[in-house]
Amino acid sequence: MIRHLRSSTLAALAVTLVLVVAAAAQAPTQAPSKPLDVPYVPTHETIVEAMLEVAKVGKNDILYDLGSGDGRIVVTAAKKYGTRGTGIDLDPVRIAEANENAKKAGVTHLVKFIQGDIFDATFSDATVVTMYLLPDVNLKLRPKILALKPGTRIVSHNYDMGDWKPLRSLNINVSDTPHQVYFWTVPARQ
Ligand SMILES: C[S@@+](CC[C@H](N)C(=O)[O-])C[C@H]1O[C@@H](n2cnc3c(N)ncnc32)[C@H](O)[C@@H]1O
Question: I need a labelling partner for 77 at 20 to 30 A (CA). Which of 23, 128, 147, 156 fits?
Fold first, then answer.
């Protein structure tokens, strides 16, 4: 009897161990592969709407959000305008949230979220690029953005691009906090 109990206990332990190892292998990494260049702060939905409006986003656009957080810009563009979009974020937790939000909004056929570094990412097919990063990160990305197709629309929440002057800049108050939205188009090559 004791021998029987021992072998069944061992078998149960072995099965548990196999299940735990299998679950660990399938679970997404819960930490970014390098330190974030920008902390996660979501853009208020009022500002998301303003960003999409200033860029006149439509169903023929291909939108990329660089540092996409919970995916709200990409998901809102897909839901409201039928825009195809890609979000890129270093943080796997944000990618999981974004996929969940896309599912809830019923737009998984239009959007995708890629876990990766915006400095390594390819987004040369973009017609619209959105971002809510930091001034130095915007400047570091600027050469890559200026190399996009002429006419590509660029929208940034709060931070500009140094001496590359925006075509439009909006001031919007949300709960008494002032926000800026900057809009550029990639110029023709000289
Ligand atoms: C200020 S939040 C903006 C989130 C979203 N775009 C929005 O407006 O709601 C910046 C995001 O950039 C991501 N991030 C920071 N450094 C990154 C990098 N090098 N590559 C990709 N994503 C990055 C963070 O994880 C965070 O989700």
Answer: 147
